[in-house]
Amino acid sequence: MKVLVVLYHRFELWNAPSWFTVRLKQDFPQLEIVHLATYDGIEIHLPDAEIAITWSLRPEQFALARKLRWIHSPAAAVHQLMFPELINSDAILTNAREVHGPVVAEHVIALIFALAKRLPDAVRFQHEHEWGQERMWQSRPRPREVSGATLGLIGLGSIGREVATRAAALGMRVIAVRQHPEKGGPPSVDRVVAPGQIDLILAESDYIVVAAPVTAGTRNLIDSARLRKMTPQACLINVSRGPLVDERALIHALRERQIGGAALDVFEEEPLPQGSELWDLNNLLITPHTAGLTERLWDRHYLLVHQNLQRYLKHEPLLAIVDKKKGY
Questions:
Q1: Which of 97, 107, 241, 300 is catalytic?
Q2: Could you confirm whether 241 is annotated as catalytic?
């Protein structure tokens, strides 16, 4: 049984370290494990691969993989794999949503504190050698407490649940939107509503966190109409994927001070172009897709892959299976 590992990315951390496949070979000597450093030559190995661990496959590559039964993506988002041939196939797709949840949730909490305490402004004043106490108090929104604030979660998956736990521990009231509200939420969530009631969540929240998958129904989910539903003091945070937020609409809302501020970790185009207008908005905090960065990342990836390989060999249900029809 061949396992094909192809995890090439321009960013160093997204490439599997050499020890990853060394340990796989030690722990699963009965498997043929092939690790390619790039996608060059992938066509040679696809026809007899039963398992693939990869960020993406093109439709023409997938067509070659006649024996492929399971694809694992180390990403949480799998929209890059949602083409008809794969969706309609019998191949199982899993992702790493549980791997990224805890560390992304920490990043969200850091962004909430940064926006609440006006830390980007404090850094700006420091660079300008200005004692900005008066200016920070007179401008809006003023520095404020996180305890007692309302957090609105758009999405209650692995990231959303981790955010909710941490936010509730800080004394925040947590309300959420999820596709199936009848499933409820963890004890840390006070109220769960359906996507059709998202405007209620936007109107009630001091902080809106976008943590939903990219699907046909979520692209430009936060548009100009939705931004107008937010209060003038509310802040928007996106740690999901760029296409969920209409960037032009957000630029306008921030320039016109329609909302209190925003923090973005993901963008429609990455890296964010130098000429983007987003760079120059002083009420926007930009982090360069760093929410999921941690030195413990590949240890967590390995644990999940190891558990699922054991399950696969025993013909047991896999962890973190993606519903290909839904896209998450």
A1: 241
A2: yes
For 58-87, how does the pLDDT look when each residue is reduced to its tens digit (9 = 90+)?
999 999 999 999 999 999 999 999 999 999
For 173, phi then psi, to 5°, come to -90, 130
Residue 164: both structure tokens together: 């909710």
Domain annotation for the chain: domains and CATH numbers: 2-98+294-313 (3.40.50.720), 100-286 (3.40.50.720)
> Has 79 been annotated as catalytic?
no
Determine whether 144 is an active site residue. no
Contacts of 208 (CB under 8 A, 6+ apart): 152, 154, 201, 202, 222, 230, 234, 235, 236, 237
Residue 170, SS3 per DSSP: coil
Threshold 0.85, pTM exceeds? yes
Residue of 97, 100, 178, 289 marked active site: 289
Name the catalytic one among 85, 130, 270, 316.
270
Mark out the alpha helices in 196-241 (DSSP H runs): 198-204, 224-229
User: DSSP secondary structure string, 88-148?
Assistant: TSS-EEE--HHHHHHHHHHHHHHHHHHHHTTHHHHHHHHHTT---HHHHHHSSSPP--STT
**Rama region for 201: left / alpha / beta (φ>0; ψ in -120 to 50; rest):** alpha
Residues 183-222 as b or e (16 or more Cβ within 10 Å = b): eebeebbebbbebeebeebbebbbbbbbbbbbbeebeebb
